[in-house]
């Protein structure tokens, strides 16, 4: 039986892409992921995630990564359908990886509704949606590592030209960099203009 795990990275960030990743693996091989120390990416250092990333892609049968740009995110936020955007892209991954059952980390407060939406968008695939699925299922934890490393690499490329930090509102370096850019009446394609922290900076300016 083939199992799929799906998770995202960067949903709360002010800058950069929202990354969604999925892995597909035979159920009997899940223990191999546990054996190498796969767990929720948030509980791992960047260096450890990079090491595990390379091991994971060798163990799983297949994996798929979707990067959603700030412009697409902004359109969804304006239309109040960010959760639908995630569901649509998770369904895309489900269809791509063709597993018998898919476990997803729900971004919707109603995790059952989120699972049903993904199922309806992926030809009634069997979906198991949960909150904190990345700490409950090793397949989702593996997907969370793939997503996080992929996003970290995107941020690393951006940081070569701009000192943006992690991209999150809690990061003073990020906030300072964004304020500096917006104070010059500029916009950059990597900034999520619809985000409330960004809107507050614009209003103050």
How would you describe this protein?
With 205 residues, the chain is α/β, with parallel strands linked by helices. It has one domain (2-159): Nucleotidyltransferase, domain 5 (2-Layer Sandwich). It has eight helices and five strands. The protein has helices at 30-35, 46-59, 70-78, 82-97, 111-121, 138-159, 172-183, 196-204, and strands at residues 2-9, 18-26, 62-68, 101-105, 127-130. A hairpin with an 8-residue loop joins strand 1 (2-9) and strand 2. Helix 2 crosses helix 6 and helix 4 (82-97) packs across helix 5.
- Parts with pLDDT < 50 across at least 5 consecutive residues: none
Please, what is the average pLDDT? Answer: 95
Number of helices: 8
Shape: globular
The CATH topology corresponds to Nucleotidyltransferase, domain 5
Radius of gyration: 17 Å
Q: What is the name of the CATH superfamily?
A: Ribonuclease H-like superfamily/Ribonuclease H
CATH architecture descriptor: 2-Layer Sandwich
Share in helix: 40-55%
- Give me the count of strands: 5
Main sheet overview: 5 strands, mixed
Q: Which structural category fits the helices and strands?
A: alpha/beta
Distance between the termini: 56 Å
> Widest sheet: strand order?
3-2-1-4-5
Number of domains: 1
Give the SSE order as H and E letters.
Answer: EEHHEHHEHEHHH
Give the C-level CATH assignment.
Alpha Beta
Strand content: 15-25%
């Amino acid at each position: 039986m083939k199992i799929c795990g799906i998770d995202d990275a960067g949903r709360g960030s002010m800058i950069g892409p929202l990354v969604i990743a999925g892995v597909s693996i035979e159920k009997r091989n899940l223990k191999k992921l546990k054996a190498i120390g796969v767990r929720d990416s948030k509980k791992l250092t960047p260096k450890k995630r990079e090491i595990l990333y390379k091991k994971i892609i060798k163990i799983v049968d297949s994996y798929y990564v979707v990067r959603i740009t700030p412009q697409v995110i902004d359109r969804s936020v304006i239309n109040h359908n960010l959760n639908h955007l995630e569901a649509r892209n998770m369904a895309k991954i489900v269809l791509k990886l063709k597993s018998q059952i898919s476990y997803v980390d729900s971004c919707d407060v109603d995790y059952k509704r989120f699972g049903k939406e993904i199922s309806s968008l992926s030809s009634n695939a069997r979906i198991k949606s949960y909150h904190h699925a990345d700490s409950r299922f090793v397949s989702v934890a593996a997907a969370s590592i793939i997503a996080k490393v992929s996003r970290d690499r995107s941020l690393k490329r951006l940081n070569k030209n701009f000192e943006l930090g992690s991209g999150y509102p809690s990061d003073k370096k990020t906030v300072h960099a964004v304020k500096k850019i917006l104070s010059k009446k500029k916009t950059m394609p990597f900034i999520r203009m619809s985000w409330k922290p960004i809107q507050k900076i614009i209003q103050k300016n």
